[in-house]
Design brief:
Helicase, Ruva Protein, domain 3, five-stranded antiparallel beta sheet
């Protein structure tokens, strides 16, 4: 799961500050970090770990400046026309069709149980890990420990995720030193962060384990469950072309990605959908950077739900476009 954070500290400032104090990878010295000792004590008191046990775990962790560099430069900050070229490709479409055909039964079950469009399930796994081929090369323990100790803007968030990760590895019976994932600690085929894994992963293949590392069925079911829990509406629209008149629409853009105004209300600000079937349908105005200038779409609830997976409009747009192309190609093949 790619992460986009509303950090309060300037990226430019961080680029000067962090390298000055943290420029080389090095193993974690447990005794040198009071915050880490306090963290271990809290886990021991609240969740039955021992401090000595955790100290042994952190001996295999390394603090890495490349993780800080990566989180400061997420792909989601690229303009849309550049971002799209990474994820909406002929190879991704072809592999998406192959993935859908190979796992058609599980995808159909997920749609039936959770109501989520199958092309969206497939596209999310495609964008996240290229259908399982790129699950991340960073040791998750390195990533979360580095971000907790060396990334002040989100230290508290990653402290929580580090705790969730250690609880998760104990629950699923894996060595925390061995799991690899994204630079932000996301795990498995669908790239769930540890808290999402513990809360929203499902055992979709019925083997008694929620395995997002190796079970494609569990990944498929978990993506659908994630979207369902976040408010997916079965059969509802995602996005639509918008026509703009005047200049009042600039105010609408500032409302964010969550649909806040009805189509009827949007018309009062010069924002019109291509079709007006339901004037009370709520939508958000989505602006994206085309190669030759900006363009606009209306994003409905299901588009917003995709942004709960990754809080970025470019990510959601890539999922929608890739999913549409995969569905079209599959229909052509059949």
């Amino acid at each position: 799961m790619h992460l986009e954070f509303p950090w309060k500290i300037s990226i430019l400032c961080l680029a000067w500050v962090i390298p000055a104090i943290f420029s080389e990878s090095h193993a974690v010295d447990f005794g040198s970090y009071p915050a880490l000792r306090a963290f271990a004590t809290e886990l021991a008191e609240n969740h039955g770990f021992s401090v000595n046990q955790l100290q042994q775990v952190f001996r295999c962790a390394t603090l890495r400046p490349d993780i800080i560099e990566a989180i400061e430069r997420p792909k989601e900050r690229l303009p849309w026309h550049e971002y799209r070229k990474i994820f909406v490709t002929e190879d991704s479409v072809r592999r998406g069709v192959q993935f859908w055909k190979q796992h058609a039964t599980d995808i159909a079950r997920a749609q039936e149980r959770y109501g989520v469009a199958p092309e969206i399930i497939v596209a999310i796994i495609g964008v996240e890990t290229r259908y399982g081929r790129s699950q991340g090369s960073y040791p998750v323990l390195d990533a979360l420990t580095t971000l907790m100790l060396k990334y002040p803007p989100r230290a508290e968030f990653f402290r929580g995720e580090l705790g969730e990760f250690l609880l998760l590895t104990r629950e699923i019976g894996v060595d925390p030193c061995q799991i690899k994932g994204s630079y932000a600690g996301a795990i498995g085929l669908p790239q769930f962060i540890p808290s999402s894994y513990r809360r929203l992963a499902v055992d979709f293949d019925g083997d008694g384990r929620r395995d997002l590392l190796d079970s494609t069925a569990d990944a498929i079911g978990s993506v659908a469950h994630y979207l369902h829990i976040n408010g997916w509406e079965a059969g509802a629209s995602l996005i639509e072309e918008a026509r703009l008149e005047g200049t009042l629409y600039f105010w609408i853009e500032k409302l964010g990605l969550k649909p806040a105004l009805s189509v009827r209300q949007l018309a009062g600000y010069g924002v019109f959908p291509r079709q007006r079937d339901d004037p009370e349908h709520r939508a958000a105005l989505i602006s994206l950077e085309g190669e030759y200038g900006p363009f606009h779409r209306l994003g409905y609830n299901n588009f917003y739900v995709i942004t709960r997976y990754n809080h970025n409009k470019r990510y959601a747009m890539a999922v929608v476009e890739l999913g549409e192309l995969i569905r079209q190609r599959l229909e052509e093949d059949t």
